[in-house]
Amino acid sequence: MKRVLVTGGAGFIGSHLCERLLKEGNDVICLDNYFTGSKKNIAHLLDNPYFELVRHDVTSPYFAEVDEIYNLACPASPVHYQYNPIKTIKTSVMGAINMLGLAKRVKARILQASTSEVYGDPEIHPQTEDYWGNVNPIGIRSCYDEGKRCAETLFMDYHNQNNVDIKIIRIFNTYGPNMNPDDGRVVSNFIVQALQNEDITIFGDGSQTRSFQYVDDLVEGMSRMMQTRHNFTGPVNIGNPNEFTILELAQNVIELTNSKSKIINLPLPQDDPTQRQPDISLAKKELDNWEPKIQLREGLQKTITYFDTLLKDQ
Ligand code: NAD
Ligand code: UDP
């Protein structure tokens, strides 16, 4: 039995990961400061004797004997990471230093949840891991993008200088159950708006694209990356290469919910990337032919069912 630490474990992705790790027979420590996560996401795991919940902020050091660390702690939605940008960058940078320090001390393998945002507003399409990105260092998204870029640098430096056993994955837009209804990201916004027959808020003209990955596919990729061969550190893209415009996403959500919502257009936020699509050749090669299994409409349906129940219970 392995002891696994999941930082940000009460968040959207972290809660799915904790559930899977427990099912696989691991002893799981879930660490979170509940900034964007919620005890509700992991409430069903609390009775499990192999699950431990710790309120802690990764900007402070944490000590525990663990075999593996998944470092997910960081707000991921632009609304939340821009709320306190200094805290966001501290979370990425000091969080990485603290968790890498722990990994070094206890000789744990450590995986960093990096992001497609390291590519910024990409000039090459689709994005491969060797592309260095096009990121504004002083814009409203920089606290997140540059924090995650610096975390990647720290991971590589701890690996090269101190031999820490690291893994870096670059996650592309992921959605699914356990997203916070107030999260502010596009999939949860559109579904909640559609279910309540409120206006669907498209920022800009809706021609910008994203490639949406269902959470189960991500967790499978994450788990394979953690178990992969010792000298493969990544970074590796984990995302669904099927690309949609934001307008197409809105139309799909309206159709699947039978909603009476109207689409309205609001101003496009500063530095909003115009396109994003992962090249997943490296993940397929290194992670035993990993590729996403759940396509957009099936994943949206599962997520709609989740939010429908949640909103009725409120
Ligand atoms: P989320 O906001 O639901 O989860 C983040 C979790 O981290 C929350 O539970 C939050 O309370 C916790 N947290 C934040 N700051 C913390 C701190 N200082 N100390 C301890 N805990 C803290 O977001 P998510 O979508 O589950 O994202 C999880 C990770 O995956 C993040 O690192 C994010 O950057 C990365 N990621 C997500 C996506 C996506 O599309 N969902 C894409 C790329 C990368
Ligand atoms: N977006 C939108 N309406 C919303 C929320 C987001 O049109 O209510 C757009 C946003 O401008 C961006 C895309 O949807 O172009 C994805 O936004 P999200 O915040 O989900 O993720 P990110 O921009 O970080 O990829």
From TrEMBL:
Pathway: Nucleotide-sugar biosynthesis; UDP-alpha-D-xylose biosynthesis; UDP-alpha-D-xylose from UDP-alpha-D-glucuronate: step 1/1
Keyword Transmembrane: yes
Cofactor(s), names only, from the UniProt record: NAD(+)
Regions that span the bilayer: none
Annotated compartments: Cytoplasm; Golgi apparatus, Golgi stack membrane
Superkingdom, natural source: Bacteria
Pfam families membership: GDP_Man_Dehyd
Gene Ontology biological process terms in this record: D-xylose metabolic process; UDP-D-xylose biosynthetic process
Topology versus the membrane: Single-pass type II membrane protein
Keywords: Cytoplasm, Decarboxylase, Golgi apparatus, Lyase, Membrane, NAD, Signal-anchor, Transmembrane, Transmembrane helix
GO cellular component term, pick one: cytoplasm
E.C. number(s) listed in UniProt: 4.1.1.35
Gene3D superfamilies hit by this protein: NAD(P)-binding Rossmann-like Domain
Tagged with keyword Lipid biosynthesis: no
Domain NAD(P)-binding: 5-303
Family the entry assigns: Belongs to the NAD(P)-dependent epimerase/dehydratase family. UDP-glucuronic acid decarboxylase subfamily.
Name assigned to this protein: UDP-glucuronate decarboxylase
